[in-house]
Write a structure and sequence with these properties.
single chain, 21 strands, binds cobalamin, binds iron/sulfur cluster
C-alpha cells in the first residue's frame, strides 16, 4: 500500500465559500503524518468531476474528508472508487456524526480526530489484519458494521507535525494559508457541532511550534482556523508578542474570535501590531431571546461594543449572523441588516440556522417533524432545511437573501468608504457580486419552498406528485420478465427494476423515465439489485438512459448489488459518466 490519495470534496452548491481555495487542516496534517511514515501522498480538493480520476484509480487507498454539505460529493467519489475495487476510508465531521451512513460507501470510516487512527489503520491493513483495536474506526465484518470505541483522550497538539501544504494540488493558487493553534471550545452554543468532534476542553499548541510554522509564511496572508483564536488571552498575547519580536511580518491575517476579546486593550493593540487585518465574529443575532436560546453567552450591548473597539484599533470585522431561531421573525432579519449597516460592520454573512445531524438541535426538530429535507448538500447555512416557528420556510430563505442584497447594495458600499476604508469596499463589492450570483443559481430552491403546502413536512413537488396528478402513482408494470415498481418514501422517488432487461423492455423503461424527468430538482433512487441484462447492448442502452435521467433530475442514486454488478455497468458505459453531475453509485453488500 504505497500510494495514498486524500480528497477534500468541494460542494457543487453555489455559495460564497465555494470559491475559497483554502483547505481544512485535517487532510494536510494526516497527509504529512503518512508521508513521514514513508507513503507517497497527494491531496486533492475539488468537485468529483474535476478530480484527476486516472490518478485516483491508480491509488492503493483513498481517504475522503466530509462535512455535512459536501458528504454527497464524498459518497459519489467513494462509490466510484469502490466500484473500481479501491480501498476507501471516509472521515471528517459528517462521517463522525453519521458513521453508519458513511460506511455504506466505504470500507472504513474514522470518527473524530484521526491522527492516532489513520496511520495505524493503513499499517494494520498492510499486515493483513482487521482494525479491531484502532480507536474511532468503523468497518465491515461479515456484512455487519463494527464501530470501535472513540479515542478516550483528546490529541496533544504538540505531537502533530506541521502540515506540509505542498501536498495539495491547489497549493500554488492558495491565496490564504490556514494555520491552527488550538482545538476544542469551552462554550456550548446549541446549534454548533464543533465540540462533538474536538470536545469542550480547549487544547493549544506551544507558542514555539506555532512561531516556527509562521516563519515559513512571511509575506503571506494567513487564516487562523481556530474556533476561538483568543480563548486563552494570555497565551494569544504570548504568541503575538513572539510574532512581533521575531519580525514575522505577514501580508495580513484573520482569525475567529468572540466578542469578549474586544474588552482587552492589550490584546487588541498586540493583534494590530502583529498584523491582524480582520476578525470573524459569531454575533449570531441581535434578538436577545435568540441569543439566549443559542446559549451564546453574549448580549447585544457586547456586540456593539466589540464592533466599536475593533474599529478603534483599525481591525476590520466580518460579522456572522444566524437567522431562523424559534424566536426570530421577518422583522428580526430586517432589523439585523439595519443594525449591521448602522454599526458599519465591514462585511457580513447572514446564514440560515442549520440543524446538523446528530446535534441536539437536529434531534429536537426531527422529533417535532420539522425537518423539510435530508438532502445533506443543502445543509450549508444558505438553504432553509426545516420549518421555522414564526415564519414560513420561504420567508426565511427570501428575507435572508434580501437582507444580504441590501447590505451589499452599491448605496451601502459607497457609504461605507469614508468610515472603514477601501478594504471593506472591496469586500462588500465582492459580496455584491456573489450574492447576486447565489440568487440566480438558487431560484429553484425558492420556487420549491413556495410550493410547499402548509403542514406538509416533505420538500414538495416531487416527480412522484406529477405522476400522481397523471393518475399513475405506485405504478407496477410487468412487461414480460421485467418488473418496474415506483414508490415514494420521505420525499424521494424510488424506481425498482427487477428481472431480465432486454433492449425492447428497456425502451419502455426509457419512456417511463422520460415522463418522470419534467422537473430539475428531485431525487430519484434507481434500484437495480435484481436486474440482469439480456445483452451487453442492453446494458449500454440502460447506462445511457440513466445518464439522461441524471442530467435532468437533481440527484440520481443507483443502488447496485455487490461490486460485480456495479463494475459490469461501469464497463458498459457508466465509466464515461463518472464525470456526470449528481450521480451516485451505492453498493448493497447484503
Ligand atoms: C477553516 C474553516 C472553513 C474555511 C475553509 C473551508 C473548507 N475548505 O472547507 C472557510 C472559511 C472557507 C469555511 C467555509 C465553510 N464552512 Co467551515 N470551518 C472551518 C473551521 C473553522 C476549521 C477547519 C479545520 O481546519 N479544522 C481543523 C482540522 C484539523 O479538522 P478537520 O479538517 O475536520 O480534520 C480532522 C477530523 O475531522 C478528521 N478528518 C477530517 N477529514 C478526514 C478524512 C479522513 C480520510 C480521515 C480518516 C479523517 C478525517 O481528522 C482530522 C484530524 O483530526 C471548521 C471548524 C472546525 N473546528 O473544524 C469550520 C466548519 C468545518 N465549517 C462549517 C461550515 C458549515 C462551513 C460553511 C458551509 C459555512 C457557510 N455557511 O458558508 C462553509 C462551507 C465551505 C465548503 N467547503 O463548502 C462547519 C461544518 C459543519 C458540518 N457538520 O459539516 C464547521 C465544523 C464549523 C461549525 N461551527 O459548525 N470553513
Ligand atoms: S463559541 Fe463557536 S465554536 Fe464554541 S460552541 Fe459556540 S459556535 Fe461553537
Amino acid at each position: 500500500m504505497e500510494r495514498i490519495i486524500l480528497v477534500e470534496p468541494q460542494s457543487k452548491e453555489d455559495h460564497v465559500y465555494r470559491h475559497v481555495r483554502m483547505p481544512r487542516l485535517g487532510l494536510p496534517i494526516l497527509g504529512t503524518q503518512l508521508q513521514e511514515a514513508g507513503y507517497d501522498v497527494k491531496i486533492f480538493m475539488g468537485t468529483g468531476d474535476a478530480l484527476p480520476w486516472p490518478q485516483l484509480l491508480q491509488a492503493d487507498l483513498v481517504g475522503i474528508s466530509t462535512t455535512t454539505a459536501t458528504c454527497r460529493e464524498a459518497y459519489q467519489i467513494a462509490g466510484n472508487l469502490k466500484a473500481h475495487g479501491i480501498t476507501v476510508v471516509i472521515g471528517g465531521m459528517h462521517a463522525t456524526f453519521m458513521p453508519a451512513e458513511a460506511l455504506q460507501f466505504a470500507d472504513y470510516v474514522i470518527r473524530g480526530e484521526a491522527e492516532l487512527s489513520l496511520l495505524p489503520l493503513v499499517q494494520t491493513l498492510e499486515a493483513g489484519l482487521a482494525p479491531t483495536d484502532i480507536p474511532g474506526v468503523s468497518y465491515w465484518q461479515d456484512n455487519q458494521q463494527i464501530h470501535n470505541e472513540l479515542l478516550k483522550t483528546p490529541i496533544d497538539m504538540d505531537t502533530l507535525p506541521i502540515p506540509d501544504l505542498t501536498l495539495l494540488n491547489k497549493f500554488s493558487s492558495m491565496r490564504t494559508i490556514p494555520v491552527i493553534t488550538s482545538r476544542g471550545c469551552p462554550y456550548n452554543c446549541t446549534f454548533c457541532c464543533v465540540t462533538e468532534v474536538f470536545g469542550r476542553r480547549y487544547r493549544h499548541r506551544s507558542t514555539a511550534s506555532i512561531l516556527e510554522e509562521l516563519t515559513h509564511y512571511r509575506g503571506k496572508s494567513i487564516f487562523f482556523c481556530d474556533d476561538n483564536f483568543a480563548a486563552k488571552p494570555e497565551l494569544t498575547k504570548e504568541l503575538l508578542r513572539g510574532m512581533i519580536a521575531r519580525g514575522i511580518k505577514l501580508k495580513g491575517w484573520g482569525a475567529q474570535v468572540r466578542v469578549d476579546a474586544a474588552r482587552d486593550d492589550e490584546l487588541l493593540s498586540l493583534m494590530k501590531r502583529a498584523g491582524c487585518a480582520i476578525v470573524y465574529i459569531g454575533f449570531e443575532s441581535i434578538n436577545p431571546a435568540t441569543l439566549e436560546g443559542y446559549n451564546k453567552q453574549q448580549t447585544v450591548a457586547d456586540i456593539e461594543e466589540a464592533i466599536r473597539r475593533f474599529h478603534d484599533y483599525g481591525i476590520r470585522i466580518h460579522g456572522m449572523f444566524v437567522f431562523g431561531a424559534d424566536t426570530d421573525t421577518v422583522e428580526t432579519i430586517r432589523q439585523t441588516e439595519r443594525f449591521a449597516n448602522q454599526n458599519r460592520i465591514d462585511s457580513i454573512q447572514f446564514m440560515i440556522l442549520t440543524p446538523f445531524p446528530n446535534t441536539p438541535f437536529y434531534d429536537k426538530l426531527e422529533a417535532e417533524g420539522r425537518i423539510l429535507t435530508r438532502d445533506w448538500s443543502l445543509y450549508d447555512g444558505h438553504h432553509t432545511v426545516f420549518q421555522p416557528a414564526l415564519l414560513s420556510p420561504e420567508a426565511l430563505q427570501l428575507e435572508t437573501l434580501k437582507a444580504m442584497k441590501r447590505f451589499y447594495s452599491p448605496k451601502h458600499i459607497w457609504r461605507n468608504l469614508g468610515l472603514t476604508g477601501f478594504g471593506s469596499v472591496i469586500h462588500r463589492t465582492i459580496g455584491w457580486v456573489l450574492t447576486r450570483h447565489f440568487e440566480r443559481r438558487n431560484r429553484w430552491y425558492e420556487n420549491l419552498l413556495k410550493r410547499k403546502q402548509p403542514g406538509d413536512p416533505r420538500p414538495v413537488a416531487l416527480l412522484y406528485r406529477l405522476l400522481k396528478a397523471a393518475g399513475k402513482n405506485d405504478l407496477q408494470t410487468n412487461a414480460n420478465q421485467l418488473k418496474v415498481l415506483l414508490t415514494e418514501h420521505k420525499g424521494i422517488l424510488h424506481l425498482k427494476l427487477r428481472g431480465l432487461a432486454d433492449k425492447l423492455q428497456l425502451a419502455e423503461v426509457k419512456i417511463i423515465l422520460r415522463g418522470l424527468s419534467k422537473e430539475h430538482y428531485s431525487q430519484v433512487v434507481v434500484n437495480i439489485e435484481g436486474l440482469r441484462f439480456a445483452s451487453d447492448q442492453a446494458a449500454v442502452v440502460f447506462s445511457k438512459s440513466l445518464a439522461r435521467l441524471g442530467s435532468r433530475v437533481r440527484r440520481l442514486q443507483v443502488v447496485a448489488a455487490a461490486e460485480k454488478q456495479a463494475s459490469y455497468l461501469i464497463g458498459k458505459g457508466l465509466k464515461k459518466r463518472l464525470r456526470m453531475q449528481r450521480f451516485e453509485l451505492l453498493i448493497n453488500r447484503a
